[in-house]
Amino acid sequence: MSDIYLDNNATTACDPKVVEAMLPYFLEQFGNPSSIHSFGSGVGRAVSKARKQVQELLGAEHDSEIIFTSCGTESDNTAILSALKCFPNRKEIITTTVEHPAILALCAQLEKEGYTIHRLKVDGKGRLDLEEYRKVLTPEVAIVSVMWANNETGTLFPVEEMAEMAHAVGVQFHTDAVQAVGKVPIDLKSTKIDMLSVSGHKLHAPKGIGVLYLRRGVRFRPLLRGGHQERGRRAGTENAASVVGLGKACELALEHIEFENVQVKALRDRLEQGILSQVPHCFVTGDPVNRLPNTANIAFEYIEGEAILMLLNKKGIAASSGSACTSGSLEPSHVMRAMDIPYTAAHGTIRFSLSRYNTQAEIDRVIEAVPPIVAQLRKLSPYWGEDGPVAAPEKAFAPVYA
Amino acid sequence: MWEYSEKVKEHFYQPRNVGVLEGANGVGDVGSISCGDALRLSIKVNPDSEIIENASFQTFGCGSAIASSSALTEIIKGMTVEDALKVTNQDIADYLDGLPPEKMHCSVMGREALQAAVANYRGVEWKDDHEEGALVCKCFAVDAVMIEETIRVNGLRSVQDVTNYTKAGGGCCACHEGIEEILVKVLAEQGIAFDPEAAAKAAEPEPLPIAASAKAAKAPLTLVQRIRRIEAVIESIRPNLRMDGGDAELVDVDGNTVYVKMTGACSGCSMAAMTIGGSQQRLMEDLGEFIKVIPADKMPAAREPRTAAAAGAYGGFGARRIPPTF
User: Fold this and answer.
1) Is B184 exposed, middle or buried (0-12, 13-18, 19+ CB in 10 A)?
2) Is residue A401 part of a domain?
3) What CATH number is attached to the domain comprising A164?
4) Of A310, A311, A324, which has the smallest distance from its Cβ to B36's Cβ?
5) Does B20 have pLDDT greater than 50?
6) Domain count, chain A
7) Residue B129: its pLDDT value, please?
8) Nearest-angstrom CA–CA distance, A251 and A15
9) pLDDT tens sequence across A143-180
10) Does residue A402 sit within a domain?
């Protein structure tokens, strides 16, 4: 029995068709796309084709709005730092408490350098309060950066509406859409989104390739200066093979977008229901009615996530967790804390993220494997009695240091 | 995922001594639910012999927390209470063939649970003096709280100071930005601005008794003075090594080569090379000449039977001594 991969929000397998499309660009078509000779021109055409494939998936108006970068993090950093350079007198940034570290760590650094960061809070289901957003959205703000979909819970944010609001006060709007692209339909030309980040390896393209969508006419300052590549907006010789791979991956994602939202979603729901109906004291985190079709984040109370992952791994099942131990930090996931999930549950959150390659047989194996694993760990837990949590768990076990 | 030893995995997959212990007469609860690991250790002590006849645990935590708990119960069963209290967190880690640096705190938690359980058995109150911060230096497993305290207590000013006192930042150097941030914060409390250009203060936690005079006197040292100086520097780094359960001893001096014997936890430790490098740096700073520190087990066979004093008596290095270059 082969292993089951349910960690597609972390990274995905390259689609074999993607790899096939890339291969000629290592050995035969190795030229520099900027070169005049025949070695280069074929590569140049392949990069142009890929740009159009990305444009189509994103629903961008022009292919020149697609800038290839090295990853989602680079796209995020480029977007925010560009806005700060374009509007040197604006010293405020709006983001959320649940962004990816690519945004949060950058903002924390900018805060030290004197910028004011407005981090929008979320409620218990991970939803934003647009009134809070409206209050801080002033012309003092250089840029708003809000993720399209949360990587841990899959919860979707109303970025199209938020972009309209930012546009109305003349503030640039960026969205980190690395989890959303390829999973939910996107049509940028009908929105007011100015910039959007894509990461190739989240949609079956290779690692090391990303995209920054930059709406035509939006003021921009490059992060990397040098050659004229990407029309001077991102210098550095094109990662041609990966660009071609990402183009193919975008074409395939567009073909499968309905499959993702019907079949993959059905498998996700089956997995979730299968676990919830068998395991007591567990719940879905985030907003179950408004989230990515492939993501299920379940909190198993009174046990710890890394221990669950190790036992799942032993059964050949790959997932991930929001526990402190899996990150090497002292706190559980900032997303779980932002939603005010109690520590006894936050450390026990497990994210199952599916892809179009998962099968029903796999999902049924996971549904069978999870309940005994949870029961086994609860037997070890000081918060768990014979067959339920001990009475008043937080009082029954109150260790010495907090 | 962490690189766990086979022993850790085995104790996690098949933990020993799990659950509530019938007839337990000592229980220790430690850990922190916010950090994601907490442990209850129960022991059954024979009041006449003071022998721990049985032990069991209940743990909320990750793989290494569960494995450390399991290992702890196996180690202490059959020990007297007195002997059990001598078990260090390093003993627990060693029993498991080592833990990743980020996970050493799991073994610390085990040791604290033991202290708490024994205190409970003896009917005394156990107070935890342990405070843990975010891990800053991954090479030497030094956390933010320890760095902050050390800066405060010793009036440190530079990253180099912090490395000299805690070892943090002495390995791959990737945490230097983090150490600077802590310096900025702690120095600001004292109304001092952090100056990245500031020179490191004298490297010794306790100034060497001869340091002052040595710096004044630039005249070449006599043989005996020189060996004493080398010995004093080695002495000054020993407290730090002992904190980690290791030790070092000066074995021989041959010209500008100093042979040091690493013992205890230092022997065979993957960080021994860095400790050696650190003491070499300190010797060079103090003596003002080039010094090479070599582990005694790499000493040429012909030198081995000789002691440092004998080497001096032979006068082997006197003639070849490199003059101090300040």
Assistant:
1) middle
2) no
3) 3.40.640.10
4) A324
5) yes
6) 2
7) 63
8) 11
9) 999 999 999 999 999 999 999 999 999 999 999 999 99
10) no
